[in-house]
Amino acid sequence: MPGRTLALGARTRIMAIVNITPDSFSDGGAFFSTKKAVAHALDALDAGAAILDLGAESTRPGSQAGGADPVVSADAEQARLLPVLEGILKERPQAVISVDTYKAATARAALKAGAAIINDVSGFFWDAEMAAVCAEFQAGVIVGHTRGLPEEWAAQPALDDDAVMRVVHDGLAGSLSIAAQAGLHQEKIVLDPCYGFGKRFDENFALLARQQELLALGCPLLTGLSRKSFLGHALTPLHDGQDAPAAERENASLAALVAAILHGASIVRVHAVRPAVEAACVADAILRHANRSQARD
Known about the structure:
alpha/beta, eight-stranded parallel β-sheet
């Protein structure tokens, strides 16, 4: 982060999602105005969030994000995003703000305006200039793994458990290579396997069960599991054979969050901050005692 650091490892850091979009899968439109988005962000900080992740374009399944002609242009994205970023920093100058974008132009504008982190779900693959911009600012970067474009996800062929891990590992390794070539230091990077981004329902559980294997790439891990559709799919026995809607996935999200922490995540990206903070405290306590036991052995 330019001029700042955020220590990882001692306890799990909570990243709060702030969607400045009319069409997010989970809370589309709820915080679309600048005033509402800023208020929501400040509430998240008060609830215990260490990082705010601002996003002004939905990358939900089926969207045109990442393509040659996205529905939300860089100019439109910045018009939504920058007033919120500036409003938060006016109220909380020390807030650590991440910007969820795959567009280099938006990343540059956000970093100039005071953002500390760029969260690129494409892992530098959707905009060839992104890695260079992040390197120029030596910003913190969350490097994601996305299997194809959102409009292609439904047609992706199924993968077995080993193939899921191989695809995600190799994709993230490719992103790290791009970062190194651009001069972005590896200590600035956190990796995100991007649950749901081109992974079918059960493939996400296979990935979560073996997530800690990705630590071999040499970077901390972030996971974003909150309210994802594969969690709703797992709840079909409780909903008359139908997937649970996003509004009814919060308990499942907390269960997945704890599993992610126990499998190596240092940062978790969430919608509901306070429950996540409490769940992370429990998971962190388990890990502390597990590490003590291993040390004695």
